[in-house]
Structures are given as C-alpha cells and as structure tokens.
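Both lines are given unchanged directly below:

***
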Amino acid sequence: MPRRTATMLASLLMLIALLCAGVLIPVPYAAMSPGPTYNTLGEHNGECVLQISGHKDCETTGGHLNMTTVRVTGSEYRMNLVEAVYGWLAHDDVVVPHSTLYPDNKTPDEVDQQNAEEFTQSQESAKVAALRALKKPVTSHVIVGAVQKGAPAQGRLHAGDVIKSVDGTAVREPDDVAKLVTKHKPGQKVAFSVIPAKEVAAAEKRGKQPTGEERVTITTAKADEGRSRAIVGIQAGVDYTFPFRIDIKLADVGGPSAGLMFALGIVDRLSPGDLTGGKFIAGTGTIDDKGTVGPIGGIEMKTIGARNAGARFFLTPKENCAAAAKDVPSGLRLVKVHTIDDALKALEKIRKGDTAGLPACTTG
C-alpha cells in the first residue's frame, strides 16, 4: 500500500475513533436553552393564568405581559463531548457544569421540590407586592411554617397554624417566636395561642380574617448543637390574608423568577383599562413582599425566548442588566427595573409611547 494512502487511511481511522469517543464519552455538563413564554394576562390550557374572584377576566386587548422560562436538560441526561462542543458554539444554548443545575448534595426529586416551593412562594409574594402597589389591604400572619419530625411540637402544632402569641406576648414577625421560646430553659413549658390551619383555610375561602384561637402548651427540649437552648421544633413563617381569592394557574413551571410578571399581571387585572396599551412586553425577576425585584439565572436565554415569542420590550432586573446587555436580540429593548414601582412607571411610558426616557441596561 502506498505510504500516502496508508497515511490517509490512518488519519481517517483516527478521526472516526475520535468521533466515536466524542459521542460515547459523557461529560459532566448540562445545557440551557430558551424556553416557552406565558402571557400572564391570557390563557394557558384553556383557562386564565390569573383568576381573581369578582374581577375582570383574561386580557382581550391583545397586550402581553409574558413571563419567560429556560429549558434545561434533565437530571439523568448525560451530555457527550460532541453535544457539549456544539452547545458552546451555538448562540442560543449555554453549556454549564451539571452541578450548577443539579447540585451533588441533592437528589433530582429534591431539586424539583425546591423549584416547586420557590414557584409557590413567588406567587404569594407577587400577590402581596401587587396588592400593596395598589394600596389594597393585605393582612400578614406569623404561622407555623414546618414542624420537625420527632420534635416536642409534633402533633401539637401543625404547618399553617397562625401563631398569635407566645406566653401571652403577641408575635408580629417570625423571629419573635424563637426569641420568646429561647427565654425558657429546656424542659420548661411554653404556651402558644394559635388559630388552627383548618380554620385559617376556611376563613380564606370565605374571604374573612381567621378566628378561633386555641391554647397549646408544649414542653421545650434541648437543641441538638449541645448548648442549653430551648426549642419546640418549629420553623415560623409568614402567611397573608387577601381581600379576595387570587389563583395562579400555571403548571410545569418552577423557580422564583416569574414573580415580577405575576405581580404586574395581577395589577393589570385589578386596574381599569390595561397596563400594556396593546404592546408585547416580557420580563423576568424575583419579587419580595415589599416589591423589590431580584436577579435570576439564564437571563441570556430568557431575552432570546422573549424575542422569539414576539416581545419588543423586556423588563430586566437591575442586577442582570450588565449580562443581558452584552448580547441583546435584535428588535428587543431592555428596560431596567429594581422595584414593582419602577416596572409600573416603565409600563406607563410604553403605554403612552414615551419610550425615550426608559431606563436602559448597559454593559458598564
């Protein structure tokens, strides 16, 4: 066999071997790509995304306030080298370490559960922020957020119970509960005044304030860390009573990043007219009970997904602005927001066509 032919054959065989290795050898990476967007003013699977008792139905003006998502590879999927290289080169994909999406210290089920819990919490925070922006009454309650298994409180207190007082002292913040319990020594009794969770749920359905306090006395135990600190084994949290029922119907979405858009959708539904002026606006961002907008992950994927869906404006958390501004999809305008009030002011400008003064995102 001529030397040139042998060299070409050897090179071809080596290339085939490398390609086979690239396809067969898994690498510890995962991929992120633009996911679907959902109009918070519209319908999903035949029902309104936002359902508010006694208020207007889904948007009919053609305006959009779309929340955005990121599509990720599954926890069990093992990317090969060829796919990783393609993802690094592709404009619409991002390749990240597998542990970024699925931490090694958590099972896939635990990751899914965390995402679901964050999504639920984002809905509650969105309701509070929206109603407060509209100056509508929102009543907060300190509640039993969780009860530790085997703790003194197990079977005595239950998740969702409203805690009115501890040893006769009214509680207004979750931290108040721990401060009052730890005034005791382990083995001493502590008295809780609570409204049972079932009474709270019944009151919420009626749109009323929960009533019917009960006294529950619990013997404290010693904390596990060895110090003589008294505990009863609960985690206190906050719940809210709204003046009317607000339901958010959107399944198969997780994480907290839709909070801002849910809040704006609620404000729109509770306001005369519409916030968008018929414009297609998308956005992202967490939101807390005070209306502060927080950063999210996958901002580049979300701006691409928004533009692909038809958005012209994108409400961008202040902390994500620099990253988003590095590669803005053609035809999409980034609008910087830090609070729900910022977002509402921006929507007013967009609605009126006064877009010259919109706060812009920059790379600096």
About this structure: The longest strand covers residues 29-39. Residues 108-133 form the longest helix (26 residues). The radius of gyration is 26 Å.
